[in-house]
Amino acid sequence: MKTVAAALGVSPATISNAYNRPDQLSAELRERVLATAAELGYPGPDAAARTLRVGRSDAIGVLLTERLSYAFSDPFAVEFLSGLSEVVEQHGVSILLMPLTLSEDEPDVRSVQRASIDALTILSLPADHPAGAVAKARGIRLVSTDLVSDPDGSWVAIDDVQAGVIVGAHLAALGHRDVAVVVDTLAPAGGDVVELQPESVTFVDYAGRLEGLRQSLPGSVHLISAGHNALASGAAAARWLMHQPEPPSAIVGLSDVLALGALSALTDLGYAVPTDVSVCGFDDIAEAGQNDLTTVRQPIRERGRAVGRLLVDPEATPRQVLLPISLVPRASTGPAPH
Amino acid sequence: MKTVAAALGVSPATISNAYNRPDQLSAELRERVLATAAELGYPGPDAAARTLRVGRSDAIGVLLTERLSYAFSDPFAVEFLSGLSEVVEQHGVSILLMPLTLSEDEPDVRSVQRASIDALTILSLPADHPAGAVAKARGIRLVSTDLVSDPDGSWVAIDDVQAGVIVGAHLAALGHRDVAVVVDTLAPAGGDVVELQPESVTFVDYAGRLEGLRQSLPGSVHLISAGHNALASGAAAARWLMHQPEPPSAIVGLSDVLALGALSALTDLGYAVPTDVSVCGFDDIAEAGQNDLTTVRQPIRERGRAVGRLLVDPEATPRQVLLPISLVPRASTGPAPH
DNA sequence: TTGTAGGCGTTATCAC
DNA sequence: GTGATAACGCCTACAA
Asked: Residue A107: is its pLDDT beyond 80?
């Protein structure tokens, strides 16, 4: 920039103005500036320097799990991000997809420390994940996808507890007393199956759904997991469950993906659904409908849009959005066998 | 940073070291630095400043069309980006999805001017789009998704001309003499149908495929478009074509999405495929197989991976990758009606 | 309409 | 093991 200024015998400020405030200088001079810039190979204001100076990067961040590709492979994520990007693109803002390189000791939040973003949202991680605190400390606006107690916080959520209650009540009404819940952990998919203790509930995503299930189901609730949110995890969990001495009469996946995995494993094993076992999920992704899975619907795409609005426009209102949910009963749930 | 340094009576450099080079200072001092930082609410090195100083942002960019949501809705893009992110995530690098806010006069490359990224790739835009030049001028490494004449350039491509020839030869062998080609323009989807002149071929994506078709098809080739790469564009184009006095005997979509749109419109109009009209696409996305569409296969996901490797690691080799293609004949093409 | 000056927050280098 | 210093490249009051 200095070089161009020198070549033209003007001050650096003028060069800056030529790019950012065309009205602050004569059209003729601006032309000359742009011309010599091109000639000298000056590509215009440096992005990093500009960001540092103005404190804005015209990008918003989406923090994903350790697997960045989750953004393109998980149906919920894809739908949510479609809605999000729909809104964001209208403002000419870019989207930074950030990985969470998981490490043993402390949760690794390096990507959010290193990211130049104006706002952040966190996808498919427990609501109280440290990344949120880090973002706030850095002055990055946070838009949560879970209810947040902070009255000033902005979020777009559904009532997960209520969602759990809806499913629990549905199954209870059908006579199920022995229900297994397949949850998402951050472990790799399809690995060893683990029985979780009720106490560890907070380490798990969708803790609210679990709580709702507990409230509304009369019988025992077993918690198991075979890794992160993927078909393979659901399938592995279902296989394990059905090999137990006393298999459950119903399997609930804390997401449709987990439930669909369980569903296909059951079919493979020769079980009749829902005659032998009922299966139920959450979210109502497109695939749920295609496979006749009973689930709880939420407006996924609209949720993405709402988050997008909050991300690009801090003034947006309302800053706290609770989206409606509803039970979608399909062919995968039926009366418990006695 | 200065504040923390002052509070501790040490120099800013020490604070910096505490974060970036733990080995450069005593563990004890480092502890104290981190503690006071937490106390004072210093969130660690600022991202923008760091990027400015270090010249690296740990993010790579993907430039999309004006619609950011394309990344999550177009099957080719989704598959490609899955592969890309698979590789990128292993390096803890983030992905910046950048929109191309289209404007009337000059192509708007603001997003690439304002982006702090280490490398860039451009998706679904003509190979010679100005954005590439801008990136290079800024010192951002460019990984093309098209063959590039520059011997130093790095790219991952298929032989689009050959792909066109494969399709053209296939149709020619089936006796087709009157073929319409549906192309992607940057106009909104499903809008007015436009007949393009052969000269305007360079403004169009996939110019190579077109050239291959021309080379191998004996009869006339009509070029038409109804907007950007979307089912609706293909459908609108097909409807328009079949209402012409002399409808073509075969419709080629320059992408599977366009071809699938045409296919469904033809079915809706009551035409039998391939008895009345043949339809053929490019890429072999999953939906092509599900709909029995004849197409040219390319390893989409692997292409994304290869681009990812090049993006993340400038030293990666080979720097120029030509991926194989092959005709996948299915039920959507047959002999031309005479 | 144009120029001046200060500072945005770091980190690499080199000296101590 | 620790500190001083000099960029990194830009923007924006404010003054002229």
From this structure: no
